[in-house]
Amino acid sequence: MTLSVAVAGASGYAGGELLRILAGHPDFEVRTVTAHQNAGHPLIAHQPHLRSLAHLTLQETTPQTLAGHDVVFLALPHGTSGAIAAELPEDTVVVDCGADHRLEDPADWAAFYGGEYHGAWAYGVPELPLAAHETGAETGAAAGAETGAAAASDAGPTPASAGTGKQRDRLRGARRIAAPGCNSSSVSLALAPGIRAGLIDDEDIVAVLAVGPSGAGKSLKTMYLASEILGSANPYAVGGTHRHIPEIQQNLRKAGAVSPTLSFTPVLVPMSRGILATSTARVKPGVTAEQVQAAWEDAYAGEPFVQVLPAGTVPRTADVLGANTVLIGVALDAAAGRVVTVLAMDNLYKGTAGAAIQSVNIALGLDETAGLTVNGVAP
To answer: What is the pTM of this model?
Structure first.
């Protein structure tokens, strides 16, 4: 059975990437696309690469326009999804690709975003390792989810590691899903294996990310102009101010951290898309390089989209462009007493749109890999 899909915010980068993937999905049909100031325009005028969807016209983003579909993706600015989602039918699968439903603590929302808090939904990083005390427990993040034996029995093909102990368990049967922040999922996936295995400390974590400007959307700001970015590396949100920090800390607590502290510095670099995240943490006394490599490999064994590279190997962003793939290299810096992880992902694909569609596949009991690719684009 083909499921009907609507995408709100379809003229933006995240919306365009959602549509690009959905256009090749065997179980979904995109029937409605919406925008704000671009309503009334042909979709192809704003997404000229989406030739197979040239018949669609952007409509106004209203609950009435979005209602009546099996799945609704909200690729809207932060602070705008909550009110719209609240008016959509409960049996519709709604995925928020913004931040409105990621954070479980209202205080975190108030401190880093502000405005009305709309609650937390099931978090859309299926591969995120969970600590033993988190496994099988009900959480506020699953608000709006409908789970049970029937949903689990209809879950369809899943990866070899898809048993208990991963966030995907909380996505099965969900009707409200919060897609992750791309920076958040990169640091979380890079460090969660060491936290869960008890090999690294959760204090004094440092993450420096090279990121493409497409993660900030199409908004016209000076810092994103080609003349500002080309030939330069530009740090931003320095000194603990980036909005993804509480989301990362929330994820690391799910992996077993108690009070994680994080120094997080993103740097804009001249590539349109991609994240290269270098994250380090203090290693526990006596831990060996072999234990570190084994812990990361075990955490993601059987995962179709998260792959740990052989010891001594680190990834490049070029290897994951246009794919739902995460590549992780991990090493022990014995002299510094730290584990060093280097993670590469495509911020628009696996960082946003791919994670959203992968999560919906799980929620609806479809093949988790349906419509998604592990193969990047080269050169």
So the answer is: 0.91
